[in-house]
């Protein structure tokens, strides 16, 4: 739960009690994979979401490339045309990432 200060639209600076529950504001909250900023401005929140989405997509892309390399290696092994040169060139291309 975020408590906003209605005057400047930021998180309230002191601990507040609402309906008998003590609320302590924090700077950053991670909620379902999305980071909310301490300022609670729409621009900053969207910026943080976009940054996290790009990081997730990049890690997914790198995983997908490794998975494709593994599938290619398995196909070549089944066909019997997998040479030592192929192994070294594939390892060097993966290590360059």
TrEMBL record:
Superkingdom in the source lineage: Eukaryota
Protein name: Uncharacterized protein
Annotated organism of origin: Eumeta variegata (Bagworm moth)
């Amino acid at each position: 739960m975020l408590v906003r200060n209605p005057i400047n639209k930021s998180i309230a600076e002191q601990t507040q009690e609402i309906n008998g529950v003590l609320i302590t504001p924090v700077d950053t909250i991670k909620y379902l994979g999305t980071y909310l900023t301490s300022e609670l401005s729409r621009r900053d929140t969207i910026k943080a979401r976009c940054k996290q989405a790009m990081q997730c997509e990049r890690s997914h892309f790198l995983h997908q490339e490794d998975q494709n390399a593994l599938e290619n290696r398995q196909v070549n092994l089944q066909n019997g045309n997998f040479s030592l040169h192929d192994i070294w060139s594939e390892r060097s291309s993966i290590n360059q990432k």
